[in-house]
Automatic annotation (TrEMBL):
Belongs to the hexokinase family. Its EC number is 2.7.1.-. InterPro entries: ATPase_NBD, Hexokinase, Hexokinase_BS, Hexokinase_C, Hexokinase_N. Keywords: ATP-binding, Glycolysis, Kinase, Nucleotide-binding, Transferase. Residues 18-214 form the Hexokinase N-terminal domain. It is an enzyme of class 2 (transferase). Pathway: Carbohydrate degradation; glycolysis; D-glyceraldehyde 3-phosphate and glycerone phosphate from D-glucose: step 1/4; Carbohydrate metabolism; hexose metabolism. Pfam families: Hexokinase_1, Hexokinase_2. GO terms for molecular function: ATP binding; D-glucose binding; fructokinase activity; glucokinase activity. It comes from Clytia hemisphaerica. It comes from the Eukaryota. One of its GO terms (biological process) is glucose metabolic process. One of its GO terms (cellular component) is mitochondrion. This is Phosphotransferase.
Length: 461
C-alpha cells in the first residue's frame, strides 16, 4: 500500500525526469507546418480516382451537394448511431425554425459485438416503436429518414454506402463491405411494421456541418472532437478526381475526410511518443486511427495514464507504488484529464484518492496537472493543424467551422488552446468556431431536406 506519510518535494533529478517527459509532447510551429503540408498532399491524393485506397485520409464523397438556404421545411425522422447509445428523432423544420423530440436506446455489448441481423433488427425495432409513439399505431409511412451512421463509409450515393471498417468499439459481423442502408431497409421490411420511402445516409461530421449551416451561411467545415475525431468540408467537384458524373448539375460536394486514420501509413512518426505507441498497441485496432488516438477523448486519459506509470516506475511519483486502480487500462479517464486542467486542487486530490493514493501531495497534483495540460495542448494543436490544412484549401479570409463533441465542449482549456494555435497558423484568416446544435439528429433532417430541394431544382433546370 502507498505509505500515508508526507512525501518530500521533488528534487532536481525528479524535476528533470518530468521536464523530459513533458518535452516529448511539444508540437512547435515548424512541426505543425510539416504536418499541414504532408496532410494537404494526402488530401489531394485521396481526392483522386482510386486515391482513397492508398491515401491515409479517404476523402469520401458524401453526395451532399449544397448547404441549407433557410427554405427547408417538413417533418423528418432521423436515426443516430455512433456509440453505446442510439437515438431516434422526429425533427420538424419550418422556415428556419427547428423543433425536435427524441428517444434514446442503449446499445449493449452483445449487439456491438454481434451480427448484422442483431444490430439492424434492433435499429428497425426502435424506429418502429418511436414512430408509433409519435404518429399513432395506424400510421406506417415515414417518408425520408436521415440516418447518421458515424463510421467510415464509402458512399455510392446519398442512399447507398458500404462500411469500410468498424471503429469506436464496434465489431459487428457481416457489415464491413456491405451497404448499411440496404441492411437497414431489409430489417425494416422484415419487421413489416412501418414503410420508409428512402434512407439518406450521412456521417455525424456532415450532420454537424449541416446543422450549424442552417443558421450560419458561412459554415464550410464540420469538425468533431469527442470520443473520436473527424472533419468534413465543402469541396469544389472540379478538384475531385473520383467524381464520375461530368453531366451532373452539381458543382460542389461535402467531403468526409476521415482524418482520424491519418498516420496509419507512418505519417505521424515524428510527433508520436512511446506512450502513444503503447496506447495504440493495447487498443482494439492496433496500427489504425493514429491521429484520432492523439487528439480524441477516447484516448487522452490513457495517454496520461501511461505517462504517470512511467514516472512511477522511475520513482518520481508515489514512491514507485502502482495502485490496483491505476494499473487497470483506461482507469484514468479523459474526464480526469479535464479536471486536472481546470486547476481545482481539491478535485485533483479527490481523483488521486479514488485511484488509491490517499497520501498524494500537492506536488504530486502539480506534476499530474502538467502532464494533463501537455497532452491536451498537443491534442489541441494537432487538431488545429488538421483544421488549418482544410482552411488553407478553402482560401477564404473568413470562415465558420461547425464544432461538436464532448472533448471540445467539456474540456476547460481545449477551446482556448485551439484558438491560440489557429491564430498562430492562420494569422490573416478570421476563423469562427461555432458550436453545432445536435448535428447527428437535426443535421440528418437538414441533409434530407436539402437533398429534396436540390433534387427538385435539378429537375427544373
Amino acid at each position: 500500500m502507498y505509505p500515508a506519510t508526507h512525501q518530500c518535494a521533488p528534487g532536481a533529478w525528479e524535476k528533470e525526469k518530468v521536464k523530459t517527459l513533458l518535452k516529448k509532447f511539444e508540437f512547435p510551429r515548424e512541426s505543425a507546418e510539416e504536418l499541414i503540408s504532408k496532410m494537404n498532399e494526402d488530401f489531394s491524393y485521396g481526392l483522386k480516382n482510386g486515391g482513397d485506397y492508398h491515401s491515409p485520409v479517404k476523402m469520401l464523397l458524401t453526395y451532399v451537394h449544397g448547404l441549407p438556404d433557410g427554405t427547408e421545411t417538413g417533418d423528418y425522422f432521423a436515426l443516430d448511431l455512433g456509440g453505446t447509445n442510439f437515438r431516434v428523432l422526429l425533427v420538424k423544420l419550418n422556415d428556419g425554425n427547428v423543433s425536435m423530440s427524441h428517444e434514446t436506446f442503449p446499445i449493449s455489448q452483445e449487439i456491438m459485438k454481434g451480427d448484422a441481423d442483431g444490430l439492424f433488427g434492433y435499429i428497425a425495432e426502435c424506429l418502429a416503436k418511436f414512430a408509433k409513439l409519435k404518429l399513432g399505431q395506424e400510421t406506417r409511412k415515414l417518408g425520408t429518414v436521415g440516418f447518421t451512421f458515424s463510421f467510415p463509409v464509402r458512399q455510392e450515393s446519398l442512399t447507398c454506402g458500404s462500411l469500410i471498417k468498424w471503429t469506436k468499439g464496434f465489431d459487428v459481423d457481416d457489415v464491413e463491405d456491405h451497404d448499411v442502408v440496404a441492411l437497414l431497409q431489409q430489417a425494416i421490411e422484415k419487421r413489416n411494421e412501418i414503410e420508409v420511402e428512402q434512407i439518406a445516409l450521412l456521417n455525424d461530421t456532415t450532420g454537424v456541418m449541416m446543422s450549424c449551416a442552417y443558421n450560419d451561411p458561412d459554415v464550410m467545415v464540420g469538425m468533431i472532437l469527442g470520443t473520436g475525431s473527424n472533419a468534413c468540408y465543402m469541396e469544389k467537384l472540379e478538384y475531385v478526381g473520383k467524381w464520375f458524373h461530368p453531366q451532373s448539375p452539381y458543382k460542389e460536394c461535402i467531403i468526409n475526410t476521415e482524418w482520424g486514420a491519418y498516420g496509419d501509413m507512418d505519417e505521424l512518426q515524428s510527433v508520436s511518443t512511446s506512450y502513444d505507441k503503447i496506447v495504440d498497441e493495447e487498443s482494439l485496432y492496433p496500427g489504425k486511427q493514429l491521429f484520432e488516438k492523439m487528439i480524441s477523448g477516447m484516448y487522452l486519459g490513457e495517454i496520461v495514464r501511461q505517462c504517470i506509470l512511467s514516472l512511477i516506475k522511475d520513482f518520481v511519483l508515489f514512491r514507485g507504488y502502482i495502485s490496483p486502480q491505476l494499473s487497470k487500462k483506461d482507469s484514468f479517464t479523459t474526464i480526469y484529464v479535464s479536471e486536472f486542467c481546470s486547476g481545482d486542487a481539491m478535485k485533483c486530490v479527490n481523483i488521486l484518492h479514488q485511484l488509491g493514493y490517499e497520501a498524494a501531495t500537492i506536488e504530486d497534483c502539480h506534476v499530474m496537472q502538467d502532464i494533463c495540460i501537455a497532452v491536451s495542448l498537443r491534442a489541441a494543436r494537432l487538431a488545429a493543424a488538421g483544421l488549418t490544412c482544410i482552411l488553407r484549401r478553402l482560401k477564404r479570409s473568413s470562415v465558420s467551422v461547425a464544432m461538436d463533441g464532448s472533448l471540445y465542449k467539456k474540456h476547460p482549456t481545449f477551446k482556448r488552446f485551439m484558438h491560440q494555435a489557429l491564430e498562430e497558423f492562420l494569422p490573416t484568416t478570421q476563423v469562427n468556431l461555432r458550436l453545432a446544435e445536435d448535428g447527428s439528429g437535426r443535421g440528418a433532417a437538414v441533409v434530407a431536406a436539402v437533398a429534396q430541394r436540390l433534387a427538385k431544382t435539378a429537375l427544373v433546370d
